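Closing statement on the pyridoxal-5'-phosphate sub-project.
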Amino acid sequence: MAAMSKIATGNGHGENSPYFDGWKAYETNPFHPIDRPEGVIQMGLAENQLCFDFIKNWLIKHPEASLCTAQGVNKFKETALFQDYHGMPEFRQAVAKFMGKVRGDRVKFDPDRIVMSGGATGAHETVAFCLADPGDAFLVPTPYYPGFDRDLKWRTGVELVPVNCESSNDFKITRVALEAAYVKAQEANLRVKGLLVTNPSNPLGTILDRETLKNVVSFINEKNIHLIGDEIYAATVFMDPEFVSISEIIEEDGVECNRDLIHIVYSLSKDMGFPGFRVGIVYSYNDAVVSCARKMSSFGLVSSQTQHLIASMLSNDDFVDNFIAESKELLFKRHKYFTWSLSQVGISSLKSNAGLFIWMDLRKLLRENTFEAEMELWRVIINEVKLNVSPGSSFHCNEPGWFRVCFANMDDNTMAVALLRIRTFVLKNNEAMVPPRKLCRRSSLKLSLSRRMDDLMSPSIMSPHSPLPQSPLVRART
Ligand SMILES: Cc1ncc(COP(=O)(O)O)c(C=O)c1O
């Protein structure tokens, strides 16, 4: 066969990471309550499915928003022909307004700076192409979304340098960590072109506080490098403290910032739960970047049919206000039920108030404090507990024992089965969790926990395939 390109034959897609392996395990044996009750439950997918009934109701009441209805078909021809890479004005206006609403209307977005792309995936690559040459580097705080290794690096030739954040301070992005990564990149002869922060964080489910954001802004200004803020989880903040966007910080009195350095990546994949629509946005404060990204957007336009639907939906203020409130409430309830249920078997997670996942701490279940032990535990969770969760190492976490678990991509019953499997597994492994030296003191604690659980669950309920007694929170909804 004639030789193919380095990009085609290289491993830049990163498909062989455990993050994707877990998906494969799920795909070969997906859980179904009746057809495949022993199947793998997908908890590795950051999807937001909780509001779909709410959205469906709106669609039923607004047939004109769709082109495939008697009420909408008169827009068919103009929409089918539309191909301007600036995007439909009504789409850009609606998205700009939505971005403002999601940020509590504390900041306004200019529709003329909205550039389309194929999801945040395409938006990240576009920004990387605009800002960096092959061999240049971006700093990225860990743990970070594994897709960045594909989106920013694969076709652009850009390098990512981790900013190592630690559990001892809840994975905060500190000035010390930023400086250390910057120096490391320089030592490796990499020219640092920017810093990429994800706020709210995937996988942590936490948000960056004002002080951290200000530190980040002053760091990038001092170094004269770009700041890319991935804010695709902005509307998933379901509990105080409220979300603060980088766009608010740069408008604050007393914050010195060269706005040409600031770029936001957004999408509707998480906030609205529409990853299939591929609505990605580059919002840059830099005119040259807007102009270049817009030209590049020809490679990843949002289809005009989708623009039409999104424009109709997001220009409806009532829908948007109610959707944002409903989504937050459902995420809050799911998160509370999930973390509460895990806490009942002694599993803790990083305190979080956003996102579609939790960052679960299974360090005490590791055979030893290594990434090999993390992978061993992960294999048991996939193959025996039959849950696809994602190991921390796939997020470049530098401490073994953390796992990301998604909680918004399934219905209540599947969630209950997943929780029961986790409980059954932990209870079965209780003794293994206890280091031999401390066995006496802690085992009595664990035994009493087991007994409480036994009291709670009859033998039939203890079957991993029967539903859990539901928390009062979930019962209240159903
Ligand atoms: C932080 C982050 N950025 C970007 C993406 C890609 O999103 P999209 O589906 O809009 O391409 C994801 C998807 O999980 C993500 O978590």
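The chain is about 40% helix and 10% strand. With this model delivered, the sub-project is considered complete and its resources will be redirected to Aim 3.
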